[in-house]
Amino acid sequence: MKPRLNVVLVASAGLLLAAASICVQRAGAVKTNCFPELKQNEDPGRERCEQRKCEYEGQQSDNSPSCLWTRGGYIVSSVTENTNTQYSAVLTRQQDYNGPFPGSRDLDELRFSVKAISDNGLRITISDLGGVRYQVPKEALNIPEPGPTNPDATVYRWEANTSSSLLDVYQKTHPDQAIMSLLKAGFVFSDQFIQLSLGLDCQNIVGFGEHNHERLVHDRRYKRWSIFTRDASPTGPGNIYGAHPYFVCTDAGKHMGVLLKNSNAIEVELTPDGIVYRVLGGILDFYVFMASSPESLAQTYSAAIGHPLMPPYWSLGFQLCRWGYRNITEVQNVIARNRAIGLPYDVQYGDIDYMQNTMDFTIDATNYPGLSSMVDDLHSHGQKYFVILDPAISSDVEMHKQVLPSQRYEPYHDGLTRGVYVKNLDDTVHEGEVWPGRTVFPDYTLSATQAWWERWVSDFYYNQSIRVDGLWIDMNEPASFTYEPHKPQNVCPNNTWNYPPYIPTSFIGDRFYEKTICMETKHNWGRHYDVHSLYGHSMGMQSYQTLRNLFPEKRPIVFSRSTFVGSGRYAQHWLGDNHSRWPDLHWSIITMLEFNLFGFPYNGADICGFVYDATREMCIRWTQLGAFYPFSRNHNIKEADGVRTRDQDPASWDAEAQKIMKDALFFRYKYLPYLYTLFHYAHTNGATVVRSLAHEFPNDTAAVRIDEQFLWGSAMLISPVLSPAKLSIRAYLPPEDGWYDAYTGEEVQETGLVMLDAPLEHINVHIRKGFILPWQTPSTTTVSSRNNGLGLLVAAKQLPNSNLKATGSLFWDDGESFETYTAKKFILHEFELSTDETSGNHVLVIRTPFNGYKDPNSLKFENITILGFDTSKDWSVSVNSEQHSEIRVNPNRKTLILDSLSLPLGQSHSITFAVRSAGTALASAVAVAICALLSTAVTGNNRWSLAI
Ligand SMILES: *[C@@H]1O[C@H](CO)[C@@H](O)[C@H](O)[C@H]1NC(C)=O
Ligand SMILES: *[C@@H]1O[C@H](CO)[C@@H](O)[C@H](O)[C@H]1NC(C)=O
Ligand SMILES: *[C@@H]1O[C@H](CO)[C@@H](O)[C@H](O)[C@H]1NC(C)=O
Ligand SMILES: *[C@@H]1O[C@H](CO)[C@@H](O)[C@H](O)[C@H]1NC(C)=O
Ligand SMILES: *[C@@H]1O[C@H](CO)[C@@H](O)[C@H](O)[C@H]1NC(C)=O
């Protein structure tokens, strides 16, 4: 394949910009490093290289390794099955072929199998013949294999055992070149070191987690990332909280997603020609999905791993938290001052401060008296309360005697009795250290642990009367402070699990078990070495089940710091302990987009940053950005560098800052019906909620690398300011459909790469032509906004012959009952604006494909605003066949507004716009007067004030 040159020229306002050119090489020859234990660009030298029977290339300027593993040592010795939909073979190791690490035994024979699991998915496994090696248990993740609808229906085909590959996979639309190949060269399968190079013929790789990626599209200059759950801030290059060995690769109409279903420690190295996997255990179990667009690929993956939870409506509201509320008075003051400024604010949190000596299920009686009434007060104001729970259970009985009124920490003893804790090899309970000091760790992979966990959550809820609305589970990587870097004297036993033959150099820390528990410890699902990255996942599953049982009528909501593939069915994710630093704003967008691809549409970073002090400007810009995180929460650390951090809740800032933050959040609240509808599709179809421009405009090559902007669904584009002292930003508005300013309704004249005004009080939001967005007059809580009138923002797309077109939908239910969709207790509306070719009349219809819910607030559509309307003509409007005289037009903005409507939710409606015969007066005096008013409003001091 010839190198491809993507040169994008976008002329705009005198700007002429050329995007970087990107060259691609043919798939098939991944340069596999023969010395992965050395750091990038570290040269082993010719002698050591040749001792390992590798090829010495010498040091290279492109980061490629100097010593290459070019041999392949397993041959396909016998084929046991070979049909269109299934291929199985035995691989045999050549006599003289060994992995690089003598401590790890090479397997002589392997089972290799390929299976068509659906029309657009295949599964490839390479495992031991006997099938005794560890695999991710079915209880943790069960990917359905319905098989293809017929053997020819697959969008892919494969060829096994070619000269250089074990397997070549082709997307049928691109028959000339395999999109991916499992290369023979470099393949190693030993007990604790499996290496496979995947040749790729596609350019843009997005995904792998959890890390802090500084760019959305991966750098393929031999960059390595490790995947192993770990308690570390999302600021450096290492592995952090979750494990998502999944990437998508897109290029010129090709869209492929590849999951390696494996919970052991993994390292991936991204090279210009493909990806090298190095896996520390288990088996190779790849799932490959292909689709015709990024969004259909995302939906395919979501269906495979399980659709995400439907969040309660209130959880889309703004949320406040900090670590370091010293007593309940302080929390009450924060609640009171944020209510007093009229902040949209639905949820308050309690971090570990509320606990007695940071022990789960206890309340600090001295500093937090009356917590139960505080929670009741939140509820009476339509607000909600979450508490944090850590997995680690205090085991220090001497401390319990000192600090607990009963002198006994019952949850600990109950867990001992039931045998729920992770055990050492000799069956003693494994101890570590977390916030309360010495602790033990529940094994959430054991079903007995569910009953124990539920008992104590329930005790907290009923007996201690803390009526929490959800759970926030933290430190579940799992984190333990026993083996922190500054405690080298604390060591886990010297065995092959704690000291594996190969530790990826991209790991943070030197010791494999750093900041967690020892690797030989025993869980129901297996050895910690194998199940480590499933700890948060299993805790999420049991916490979900706990809430299901605690309030069966309601949707469970659990936030988990550590997640695995498929955790989105049980838990939501926040992006962890970020820093109050400007680059973190940008990085949060990237991780938010990735977690949408991983099946966690409900996610977001701590607004204004967790560690360190936020500055005023940063906190304002971050609140504007965070108003568009699906999970929108301001959270702060207790202290940094030994000093208490300043408060950063909106009310802690000056009046101007408060106003700007409130404006951004009121805008969010206004469009919650749109956001909620996106979540409905995420829950039922696996749709993404937040999307990159490249995801939504896959054929627009200029959009490929943009990661400073994002969309809500297909229709709303958010272009935040991410650095200080900016009054304008450079943004990309894809020219394909055209855009309107979300605040003024003005049509954007220039698309492509543009400069947008961005004074401090403004975050740019644009609405894509062709879409209809439902909204609701906002209020300070969702409980009260759900009583308000509904509206539609119709962003018309102008087609030839003055035809208009736009579509949209609204999902509505009570916002909190469990599974209203399957219980058929919801309303679905579809909206469509179109033009009748013969009469030239425009028609806006509100259809009701389903109505199984009666809203108690008698909601009505009261306001319909159409952008892109031909206001130079004189329109006669009829609503459900009745003449409607109250029409307002703004000719400058080509906007038509129908307010004082009263169209009940749940019923179908139709609005017709007909041009009056020529000669009729253009507009009534009323309309003219209102236009004048509108123009002043939009040209006045705050030109964006029309928003809310
Ligand atoms: C697989 O391919 C190799 C090399 O191309 C060949 O030597 C071997 O016999 C093949 N195996 C089978 C079972 O056909
Ligand atoms: C993008 O281009 C491909 C052909 O390369 C076409 O099949 C597809 O429909 C296009 N997608 C969009 C969203 O225009
Ligand atoms: C709560 O904590 C604050 C800050 O330490 C302190 O000033 C205040 O006196 C405390 N109030 C109560 C009731 O303990
Ligand atoms: C573990 O034991 C092996 C074999 O006795 C020894 O070579 C190695 O240095 C030990 N490692 C540690 C970290 O103690
Ligand atoms: C209807 O919505 C538009 C903006 O979409 C706004 O300008 C107007 O004031 C609203 N009318 C009412 C009565 O709320």
From TrEMBL:
Domain Glycoside hydrolase family 31 TIM barrel: 308-678
Gene3D superfamilies: Glycosidases, glycosyl hydrolase (family 31), Golgi alpha-mannosidase II
Stretches of the chain forming a coiled coil according to its record: none
Residues that span the membrane, as ranges: none
Keyword Hydrolase: yes
GO molecular function: alpha-1,4-glucosidase activity; carbohydrate binding
UniProt-listed Pfam families: Glyco_hydro_31_2nd, Glyco_hydro_31_3rd
All copies of domain Glycosyl hydrolase family 31 C-terminal, residue ranges: 686-773
Cited PANTHER family: ALPHA-GLUCOSIDASE, P-TYPE DOMAIN-CONTAINING PROTEIN
Family: Belongs to the glycosyl hydrolase 31 family.
Protein name listed in UniProt: Uncharacterized protein
Source species: Macrostomum lignano
